[in-house]
Amino acid sequence: MAKLETRPAGETLAQKKLDIQKLLAPAALVILYVFFSFAGNNFFTLDTLKNILESSYYIGFMAFGVTFIIITGGIDLSLGTVMMCSALLGAYVFKQLHWPLVIALLVTVGVGTLFGFLNGIFVAKLKLPPFIATLGTMMMSQGIGSILTNVQSQTWPTATEPVGGWFKKVFIRADIFGIKGFPVGALWMAGFFIIAMLILHKTKFGRYVFAIGSNEEAARLSGVNVDNWKVAVYTLSGFFVGMAGIMYAAAYTTITPGTGNGQEMNGITGVVIGGTSMAGGSGTMVGTLIGVFIMAVLKNGLSACNLQAPWQTFFTGLVVIGAVLLDIYRTKAANKVKKS
Fold this sequence. Notes:
14 helices, mainly alpha
């Protein structure tokens, strides 16, 4: 008679705790939305839903890119300032140099990609700690944007302008499908979400990302060129940051030099809330998307409660700390499952 295999009780309990934690992010999203629907002014409306979507676009693109970095065990503190620098220089070449808008869009993505490549070189080739390397590029991107624009705000075209009036209609909202103000940006985010998910979970690139984050030395000994793949990871993230610059410009039009500090925390926190471990080696793009919407709901919900910007910053900071504590607890639970 075949002997039935049973898992130890400790392992079952630890596994159950880990499974429950995976449901925390979706549950938090629903709870926050319901809470602000009652506590906020006019929160449960179609207009507010559109605002939530619009504020999630640029956070989403930042988060998609930095998910790859965090899974490798790295970090990027330059996300926010590089996004602003990219949008600032794109607007500058369009408004001041009178380059075609399509070229300005390419400049925006190109600047973000270039800074991502530099981060990769600093981290992988020059062996700088990611925290220090990206802190340096954070200040570099702020300085370059301010220098080239002579510390003057730059604007992207509005929907009513004769030149480039299609910009907002293509990237943020348009009257299509019989719907006034259809959130076109959601289609862009959904499309790039699918691309990012396929890259992470269905390609050799994604497998190496997880391998590097799980055990970098083991990946190196197995023949993986870790340094080159790290450069590729940071470069890919830079591309997504450039796209975030376009989405931010489409949503807010005016770009101010020297800004962007703190925006990176929206993306990073969204990734961590979504289940990606700061220790590296684990994470999903679906979880990141849920975390992004949590940050967007929080941002709009606090505004609906008539809380001023300092209070919004304060509560966002609490969420950051809570996300990191959750990650620590989640990592301990996962280690218990492995040891059992």
